[in-house]
Amino acid sequence: MFRHESGFDCTFSDMEYVSEKLNGYFSTFEFKCKMCGIKMRISSENIKADYLTINKAVLNGTVAIGIGQRQLTEFSAALEMPSMANTTYSRVHKSMHSSIHDSAWTEMLKAGEEERRLAIEDGDVDEDGNALCTVVADGQWGIRSYKSKYDALSGVATIIGYRTKKVLFVGIRNRYCVVCHRAALKQIEKPKHSCFKNWNKSATSIEADGVVE
């Protein structure tokens, strides 16, 4: 990077800054050599490295603390930093969804194997040698359903291993999809999208069905 082939024995110290291309929190800087005119681009992070990129790391943080693109933009403005455009945020969010989903399933499978192993070591097996795993199950809703309107639009059932205290399974039920809802209101055909609506029954039945799954 510090020396480029030009015939003039130029180095990076002979180059001057030209421009910066922003992509969310990731930047690509362009430099031009004052001696030979060669242009060089330098990124703010190693794009070939196998690690979580800055944009994915930031988006992962927004998901973890429950904020969206608008709140992220306000936070970045307070830090006097550029933020992600809504299109960039949506694209990164879509790619992160698959990664988070796959990672979650991998960890739950590992937890299940560990729970099974501990049950066998403790002698908790049936007559056929199958592990009898003690678990704790609970359900959650986006809003309170019992003793209220019983109208939660989403809910989650979680199964946790008694021995490992690790999550073994998560069953998610959604009764609402904003894309489908808007299409129905406008009486138009639904556009192609990733629809997360998978439940048409009552909110109170979400917990039981998730545990059964």
From TrEMBL:
Pfam families: Mutator. Residues 4-213 form the Mutator-like transposase domain. It comes from the Eukaryota. This is Mutator-like transposase domain-containing protein. It comes from Macrosiphum euphorbiae.
